[in-house]
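Please fill in the sequence for the structure shown.

STRUCTURE ENCODING:
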């Protein structure tokens, strides 16, 4: 018998963009645009600036560009810096589920960016990598 994490991982690994219902693909696209707008709006905030400066100072690798700037830092650090900018104004999307509330864009944009930065892939594969956490997270 497999664990929940194994089942979710298998589901996400097998998920293809083409398999997503149109409404789910449309929702994923909308959240991506929402996330970009929130990142832009939060870019100059004090918390985002402090996180960028600190991570720039601490980062030993220069693999990923932080949204909105020319700073290159480690992949996970860039995901964190981008996530702080997205969340700063707390205007990003909200999902009201039957038992809990979430901000899917936190996963969709900032965390899944690590996948698309590290692995050379087509636009379709990147879109799939960004939609998978959304679909699995809201299930």
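FILLED IN BY: designer on duty
SEQUENCE:
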């Amino acid at each position: 018998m497999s664990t929940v994490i194994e089942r979710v991982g298998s589901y996400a690994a097998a998920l293809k963009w083409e398999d997503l219902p149109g409404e789910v693909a449309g929702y994923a696209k909308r959240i991506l645009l929402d996330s970009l707008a929130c990142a832009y709006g939060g870019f100059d905030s004090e918390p985002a600036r402090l996180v960028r400066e600190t991570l720039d100072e601490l980062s030993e690798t220069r693999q990923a560009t932080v949204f909105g700037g020319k700073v290159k830092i480690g992949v996970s650090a860039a995901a964190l810096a981008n996530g702080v900018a997205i969340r700063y104004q707390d205007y990003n999307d909200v999902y009201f589920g039957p038992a809990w509330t979430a901000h899917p864009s936190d996963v969709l944009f900032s965390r899944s960016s690590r996948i698309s930065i590290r692995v050379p892939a087509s636009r379709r594969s990147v879109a799939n990598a960004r939609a998978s956490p959304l679909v699995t997270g809201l299930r």
